[in-house]
Amino acid sequence: MAKVRRVIELWNAPGVMGAGNETKTVPKVGKKAPKGSEQSRMMAEAFWYMMSLYDPAWATRIGVHFGLFMPAIQGQGTQEQQDKYMPLITSMKIIGCFAMTELGHGSYIRGFETTSTYDRATEEFIINSPTDTSTKWWIGMAGQTATHAVVFARLIVGEKDHGVHSFVVPIRSLETGEALPGITVGDCGAKMGRNGLDNGFIQFHNVRVPRNNMLMKWAQVSPSGEYTSPPKPQLSYGALIGGRVSMIQDSSDYSKKALTIAIRYSAVRTQFPIGDNDYEEPVLNYQSHQMRLMPLLSTCYALHFTAEQIKKKFEKMTEELEKGNITNLVGVHATSAGLKAFSTWWCSEALELCRQSLGGHGYSAYAALSSFLADFAVMCTWEGDNTVLAQQTAKYLMKIMKHVEAGKEIHGFEKYLQNYKTLLSEARMRSSHLFDHNIQLAIMKRASIRVIEMAWNRLRKERAKSAALKQDKGHAWNECMSDLILAARAHCDFYVLTCFSEAIAEISENQELTPVKDVLTKMCSLHGLILMDRYSSFLLYDKYISSRQFLAIRDGMKTLAKEIRVNAVPLVDAFNFPDFILNSPLGRYDGEVYSNYLETVKKTNYCQGRPSYWETQISPLTNPNHPKDQ
After folding, report:
1. What integer pLDDT is reported at residue 20 of this predicted model?
2. What is the pLDDT of residue 25?
């Protein structure tokens, strides 16, 4: 928690963070910066960003309090509630957690069992965990630290169940840290990764809280028990959208660190000569290594620009919500859900590929990638299981297709589906300029439309079957689930390529960035070819591309990977990670890999010398003079 306190200090004090691989001291400033000033905020964010890559468990502690608990109060609390809680939150006079997931239910929020029953006589809510499966589970910071929780529970007023709403519930004494009466709280124990985070469980035994502890910005319960529902159900889960947006950025950032280690090491590591050379080549010069790492690097950059774009949309949506405008809520919710799913899936695979690219040394804990992979794995399931989130995007896309069929006008990025039938009737792509971004966007638009259209037609067919057999609507969805998830992925892939292309266009307007633009253009082209290859079966099925173009796509990937390899090290150096944050002798900035790796190993307590078990276990086998047992 010392590091957590340090963030609070940085939030309220001016200064300059060290950059790159240089050690810099924070200059002393006579006058303290205003609390929450832009300078102090940037410093705190920079500190959090770097430390999140050095110690993900620590970052999650900060993230739960400031990234989930606080946004829940801001997004769902009334102004009066925000005035009460926000000063306590920002100063950490109270420490919060986000009690959503239950032992028996995760993504299926409507299945939650925790109840909050309104007592009109006392104007209190009674929070209760009626079953074992209603136990709040995996709740970050609940195990040992949090004093308060935003609890998601079924709101019951009279005999009516109004579904899941959120309530602020104290769970520990601020003075002693002991659980409050009626609260059973504990730690979930050892995990695959992030064991520095106290994921915990909470059980409520008819715990009473005042009526005003229900977050009532969108839904309200009056003293007399009159219920007012929110204008959109998604408003109740606004804090989750911010978390999903941040995980798109996390996917880019985690892969940046892994790629920095993998590419630097691959430029140093030599193995075998090529042809008649009498010297060993860096493994990064081999095509197999280039095709392993350069596509990952291009996608990493693509996600970086996508994260910037979706963050802007989220911030704009948040501003609009404050003014009562919910127009963009559903679109941002659906897009962020799909992007979170596919970016974290990709990053999980990318981290393992980077680990394997280190050869045998990738198995060493000192390489840093094995623990990094274990720490990242949870991203694919927390704050929404990826398979479920992908279906949220698919559901949104199917709704868009229904609107198109009804002749309604489509807005936002999904507008490309407006005239999908016309676009699908267009003749095949005849251009041979497959590196051109406009050509790639046209091809990927066609691929995305085709995949979505096929899922839409399949769903309509299955729904007709289900209706004839008088089956539930969910049966038809289940029969099409793989097609629907693929439709969501195609849509998100097209979105990512669009964001990357738009970033290149913006850079092109600045003449000083021409050298940067040239290499980023190749990176964007490689990413486009990767996606075209991924959906080539649909493009060939449609006869939109020829077999010759398909082969050109495959050859182009190899060509661009080789060209990008020349700038691979500068491209990861641009991430500007200090060696301290990389925490891997294999990814050192100075390239002195082996001496530092050896020194790191030698520093361990158990590296050298006779083991403690030698006398009792080994010596009896190898030492002829070992005294025999009597």
Report:
1. 37
2. 39
113 given a catalytic annotation:
no
Compute the chain's Rg from CA coordinates: 28
Q: Among 203, 169, 174, which Cα is nearest to 186's?
A: 203
Cβ proximity of 457 and 476 under 8 Å: no
Show the tokens assigned to 185.
């709280």
Residues with Cβ within 8 Å of 19's Cβ and at least 6 positions away in sequence, in order, are 576
Residue of 383, 414, 462, 479 with catalytic role: 383
Task: Give residue 472's identity as a one-letter amino acid code.
Answer: D
**H-state helical runs in 269-362:** 287-322, 329-357
- Please give the mean pLDDT across all residues of the chain: 89
Is the four-CA dihedral 368, 372, 374, 375 of positive or negative sign? positive
H helices of 469-513, where?
A: 473-479, 481-508
Buried b (16+ CB within 10 A) or exposed e, 451-462: bbbbbbebbbeb
- CA atoms of 384 and 62, how far apart (whole Å): 19
CB atoms within 10 A of CB 289: 21
pLDDT of 233 > 90? The answer is no
pLDDT score at 328: 83
Reported residue count of the chain is: 630
CA dist 264 → 82, 580, 601 (Å): 47, 15, 20
pLDDT tens, position by position, 556-567: 999 999 999 999
The model's pTM: 0.88
Tokens of 28: 């002393």
φ/ψ bin of 522: left (φ > 0), alpha (ψ from -120 to 50), beta (otherwise): alpha
Among 16-20, 62-66, 107-111, 321-325, which stretch is predicted with the lowest mean pLDDT?
16-20
Smallest CA-to-CA distance from 525 within 428, 432, 439 is with: 439
Which helix (H) or strand (E) segment is 50 a member of? helix 38-54
The residue among 388, 401, 272 whose CA lies nearest residue 340 is 388
Q: Provide mean pLDDT across the span 527-531.
A: 97
Residue 216 burial (10 A CB sphere; 0-12, 13-18, 19+): buried
* Cα–Cα distance for residue pair 445/447, rounded to 1 Å: 5
**For residue 77, which of 155, 174, 157, 150 has the smallest C-alpha distance?**
150
Q: What is the pLDDT of residues 351-404, one digit of tens each?
A: 999 999 999 999 999 999 999 999 999 999 988 899 999 999 999 999 999 999
Q: Which amino acid is at 74?
A: Q
Single-letter residue type at 177: G
Contact yes or no for 150/75 (Cβ under 8 A): no
pLDDT above 60: residue 14? no
Q: Using the 8-state DSSP alphabet, how is residue 613 labeled?
A: T
CA atoms of 17 and 43, how far apart (whole Å):
6
Q: How many CA atoms lie within 13 A of 533 on its CB side?
A: 16
Tell me how far CA of residue 371 lies from CA of 200, 351, 363, 479, in angstroms: 21, 10, 10, 38
